[in-house]
Amino acid sequence: MSRIALVTLVVPDHDEAIAFYTGPLAFDLVEDEPRPGGGRWVVVRPRGADEGSGLLLAQAKNEAELARVGDQTGGRVAFFLHTEDFAGDYARMRAAGVTFLEEPRHETYGSVVVFQDPWGNRWDLLQPAAAPAATPDQESTA
């Protein structure tokens, strides 16, 4: 086993979810294929992400699944979206109407802010702190 390829996110409507993830979050729509019985296989992933990571947007099919939409982790942050341009992405997302639950913070591990998708799933937008540069001695022993 080498990687987790997809994580399922239950959403109320495929088209609304596609609009949010490809709009304000600027994800790529990777797949949108019909499935037997009228379903769809919908995969999105952050622009520039490697082929091995993405979200499978699964439309809720019944009341039990609908009850989980927006609270699939009991109110905890569910997803961690890394960026190399924290300030730029924060400003772009905010201008696009993304709901932020706090002001940006600068922690020892990096810059972070919590936001939520339209259904209440919590995300961290995170720019990890830069690792210290290796010294010449460390490079030769690595």
Key traits:
142 residues; alpha+beta; five-stranded mixed sheet; four-stranded mixed sheet; 9 strands
Number of strands: 9
Kindly report the average pLDDT value.
Answer: 91
Shape: globular
Topology as a string of helices (H) and strands (E):
EHEEEHEHEEEEH
Low-confidence stretches: none
* Amount of helix: 10-25%
Which class do the helix and strand fractions yield? alpha+beta
Whole-Å distance between the termini? 25 Å
> Could you tell me the radius of gyration in angstroms?
18 Å
Task: Describe the fold and architecture.
The chain has 142 residues and is an alpha+beta fold. It is built from 4 helices and 9 strands; from the N terminus they run βαβββαβαββββα. It has helices at 14-22, 63-68, 86-95, 136-141, and strands at residues 7-11, 27-34, 40-46, 55-59, 77-82, 99-100, 105-107, 110-116, 122-128. The strands form 2 sheets. Strands 5, 6, 7, 8 and 9 form a 5-stranded mixed beta sheet that branches. A 4-stranded mixed beta sheet has the order 1-4-3-2. Strand 7 and strand 8 (110-116) form a beta hairpin. The longest helix has 10 residues, at 86-95. The radius of gyration is 18 Å and the shape is globular.
